[in-house]
Amino acid sequence: QVQLVESGGGLVQPGGSLRLSCAASGRTFSMYVMGWFRQAPGKEREFVSTISRGGDNTNYADSVKGRFTISRDNANNTVYLQMRSLKPEDTAVYYCAAKRSALYSMTYTRDSFYDYWGQGTQVTVSS
């Protein structure tokens, strides 16, 4: 069982930056592929980014590529999402998710693959 707690959301002006954090409970964090997803009002949840167990492999949605960076600190059971050049269309509730995997470099872009989810943190990009 893994519990995930996101933090770092807030209100930011267009062009600004935020860093989201997701803290995981337990002693086997390094066994989990981690992902970030988001859901805007009236829209379906969508993939943002994912990182493999060791951090050697990452994937990004086209809409955030070049602006967002995912990273992880296995020693501190935390995954991060650094967001730069934020746009109003990035406004959403951001969720982190975890999927236990035997494959060291695997990543998952589909939300249905993930087993554990945080409660989300709101990101609002507005002037």
Verbal overview:
- The protein has 127 residues and is an all-beta fold.
- The protein has no helices and eleven strands.
- The strands form two sheets. Strands 2, 4, 5, 6, 9, 10 and 11 form a seven-stranded mixed sheet that branches. A four-stranded antiparallel sheet has the order 1-3-8-7, with no helix packed on it.
- The protein is globular, with a radius of gyration of 14 Å.
Series of H and E elements: EEEEEEEEEEE
Give the class from helix and strand content and strand pairing. Answer: mainly beta
Strand content: over 45%
Strands, count: 11
Largest sheet, described in full?
7 strands, mixed
Distance between the termini: 40 Å
Rounded to an integer in angstroms, the radius of gyration calculated over CA atoms is: 14 Å
The number of helices is 0
The unreliable regions are: none
Key words describing this protein structure:
mainly beta; 4-stranded antiparallel beta sheet; 11 strands; 127 residues; 0% helix; 7-stranded mixed beta sheet
